[in-house]
Amino acid sequence: MTRNDKRELKLVSKTLSYLAEGNVPSKRWKQISTVASAIGAFGISFPLFSIAGKDVGTAVLLVVSALSGICLGVGLLFGSSALSWPIMLRCLDKGKLLERLRELEAQNK
Fold first, then answer.
1. DSSP code, position 25
2. How far apart are CA 52 and CA 23, in angstroms?
3. If DSSP codes are grouped into helix, strand and coil, which group holds residue 107?
4. pLDDT of amino acid 56
5. Which of 21, 39, 82, 103 could disulfide-pair with 26, CB 3.0 to 4.6 Å?
6. What is the model's pLDDT at position 17?
7. Cα separation of 5 and 11, whole Å?
8. For residue 31, what are the CA distances in angstroms to 19, 27, 106?
9. Cα separation values, 80 from 11, 41, 55, 74, 87, Å
């Protein structure tokens, strides 16, 4: 079994567990999105307010801005995923997922 098949097996089984349990991860993703966006927004505002004071070195402002941008990006990624997950659930075919899971498990044996 190739590495891609192992990834596919993991993805298909996780998706089926979400469908079976009704365990939709969008609530957790919304929380991650909110926290990461808040940290990123605070981190971006710190360098903007510090520019006027010029007490902090340029390297520190650059690092804080870069990390804040990453936090904002992660927040947007999880936020958009949380919004699109309910739509994706309606489009998933449980029968085809089960069939593919059986095929992958048969290859694994």
1. T
2. 48
3. helix
4. 61
5. 82
6. 82
7. 10
8. 21, 6, 38
9. 19, 17, 37, 10, 12
Nearest C-alpha neighbor of 82 from the set 21, 39, 31, 18: 31
Residue bearing tokens 């044996």: 109
Nearest to 28 by CA among 96, 70, 79, 99: 79
User: What does pTM read for this prediction?
Assistant: 0.64
Task: State the residue for tokens 């926290």.
Answer: 35
Q: What is the pLDDT along the chain (109 residues), one digit of tens a residue?
A: 788 888 988 888 888 887 777 666 777 888 889 999 998 888 888 777 776 666 667 777 778 888 888 999 999 998 888 888 778 877 888 889 899 889 888 887 7
**DSSP 8-state assignment for residue 50:** H
Residues 108 and 9 sit within 8 Å (Cβ to Cβ)? yes
**HSE toward the beta carbon, residue 50, CA cutoff 13 A:** 16
Q: Which two structure tokens, joined as six digits, stand for 32?
A: 């991650």
